[in-house]
Amino acid sequence: MVETSQPLGRFQYQRLELKRCVPTFLSSHKTLFTVLWIAAFGSVFLWQRNAVGGGGFNIFWRAPVRPMPKLRPFAFNLTDFGGVGDGVTVNTAAFERAVSAISKLGKRGGGQLNVPPGNWLTGPFNLTSHMTLFLAEDAVVLGIQDEKYWPLMPPLPSYGYGREHPGPRYGSLIHGQNLKDVVITGHNGTINGQGQTWWKKYRQKLLNHTRGPLVQIMYSSDIVITNITLRDSPFWTLHPYDCKNVTIRNVTILAPIFEAPNTDGIDPDSCEDMIIEDCYISVGDDAIAIKSGWDQYGIAYGRPAKNILIRNLVVRSMVSAGISIGSEMSGGVSNVTVENVIVWNSRRAVRIKTAPGRGGYVQQITYRNLTFDNVRVGIVMKTDYNEHPDEGYDPKAVPLIKDISFTSIHGQGVRVPVRIHGSEEIPIKNVTFQDMSVGLTYKKKHIFQCAFVEGRVIGTIFPAPCENLDRYDEQGQLVRRSASQNTTDIDYDF
Question: Is 36's pLDDT higher than 80?
């Protein structure tokens, strides 16, 4: 059976399997990072190859076709409902007939829809409760590129209107609302949104509605997404919205790193009790962006994102950031742990972004055991991300940003390791740094940049921290109290 997640309160945090076997300071940093890269990509290879039903890379040999396991009392093939996997036939009706059949089996344990090897062109379709969508190895679900086949939906209540245009928005390729017990899995089959046409029309301003995600699950619980590849989404790739008890594991998410606008990897939005682990993400925007609504609409909706664990990832974002919180965070974000993550060849590694008008809070955020490789800015907190849905926001609704810790942060090729840009109206409170050593590419003063921040540094870190932070020794004893918490030392010129 497919494993389902437990509530986050029961998670047993695990130590990184790949423990450091060499001292922090070697005579050759290149040697250290060669070891890190081999270990990291070796682990990616292993989980892809050995995942439950996972479809490995098969670089040196071709594995025999594996039978699709039966994970529900009833199992069907898409071909049973008239599906044709030739890449030309439109299979929307076949998917709809299959889902309708499974919807009648909920009281008997639900049903499984197997998608065999082939190219299965389809328009958007909905899932149902107690359903497993199983993608075989070499099965590719292709999103139809003509937007007239994509239905329009009401705007998300916590956003006020379509994210890009007022009014209705396009739905997602694979969609679900008010569901329980849904699994999307397989032998690493692929869901391909064929977003190239969407991106081009967006850049040319030929679309009248907000683009749709690739996979969007709303108002649902007990969701498992594992052992699949998602690629080339028209917009955000995987968007769980107002969901509880969500597990995303062993998922590969891909989009071009440039000119694939807003193709975020995973956007947990007002979700609770969620784990994202063992994934590889390389996309044209944030790899992960935790959200909870936009300005006055998010404040009114009032659903926070909370109890989220993100671990054991390799991510890349040349346009935005590896792991982001915000900027739409008006419902609040709390109790988030990000650990054992490698961010490589990216513009930013981890970022918190907000602005006056957002309201809400970002608090109890833990980052630990992060590795940055060839990253322009490592750690970013930005409080002037002034993008608003309309003129109705309240500029006096300022967010609270506090209780954020960074432990065991390492890397090489980083231009600006830290840029914490608080403000007089949005000061950043209780930030902690411990065990940090980041190799630099830009030998300039003030590369640890701060403004309106209070917090502490425990022990010795590199590069030297800003004057805004208190200093403690390794035993946690106060060495020097800062008198410069409101000092501004932000330089966006490098």
Answer: no
Considering the candidates 267, 278, 285, 295, report the single residue annotated as catalytic: 285
Is 86 an annotated catalytic residue? no
Going by C-alpha positions, the residue among 382, 383, 304, 316 that lies closest to residue 349 is 316
d(CA 116, CA 134): 9
pLDDT score, position 16: 34
Specify whether the CB–CB gap between 210 and 169 falls below 8 A. Answer: yes
- What separation in angstroms does the CA of 306 have from each of 120, 126, 184, 302? 36, 27, 23, 12
Pick the most confident of 38-42, 403-407, 464-468.
403-407
Q: For residue 411, list its beta bridge partners.
A: 372, 438
The angle at the Cα of 221, spanning 215 to 225, to the nearest 5 degrees, equals 45
How far is residue 36's CA from residue 67's CA, in Å, rounded to a whole number? Answer: 36
**pTM score, whole prediction:** 0.87
Q: Alpha-carbon distance 54 to 50, whole Å?
A: 6
* 283 exposure class (CB count in 10 Å sphere: 0-12, 13-18, 19+): buried
Tokens of 12: 């047993």
Gyration radius of the chain over CA positions: 23
DSSP string of 175-199?
EEES-EEEEEEESS-EEE--THHHH
Single out the residue of 69, 177, 180, 174 nearest to residue 130, CA to CA.
Answer: 180
Strand 478-480 and strand 470-472: pairing? antiparallel
Considering only CA atoms, which of 151, 189, 155, 156 is closest in space to residue 173?
A: 151
- In the predicted model, what is the mean pLDDT of residues 193-213? 97
pLDDT beyond 80 at 59: no
* Residue 203 neighbours by CB distance under 10 Å: 11
Please identify which residue in the block is written with the tokens 């694939």: 260
Percent of the chain with pLDDT over 70: 86
CA dihedral (95, 100, 105, 109) positive or negative: positive
Segment 279-308 mean pLDDT: 98
Each residue of 241-289: pLDDT tens digit?
999 999 999 999 999 999 999 999 999 999 999 999 999 999 999 999 9
Q: What distance in Å separates the CA atoms of residue 406 and residue 369, rounded to the nearest whole number?
A: 8
Instruction: Give the whole-angstrom CA distance, residue 39 versus residue 60.
Output: 19
DSSP letter assigned to residue 49? H
Whole-number pLDDT of residue 492: 73
Query: Taking Cα atoms as reference points, which of 138, 140, 141, 139 lies closest to residue 63?
Result: 138
Grouping H, G, I as helix, E, B as strand and the rest as coil, residue 346 is strand
Cβ 301 vs Cβ 266: under 8 Å: no
Strand partners, 325: 290, 352
DSSP letter at 262 equals T
Could you tell me how far CA 252 lies from the centroid of its own chain?
11
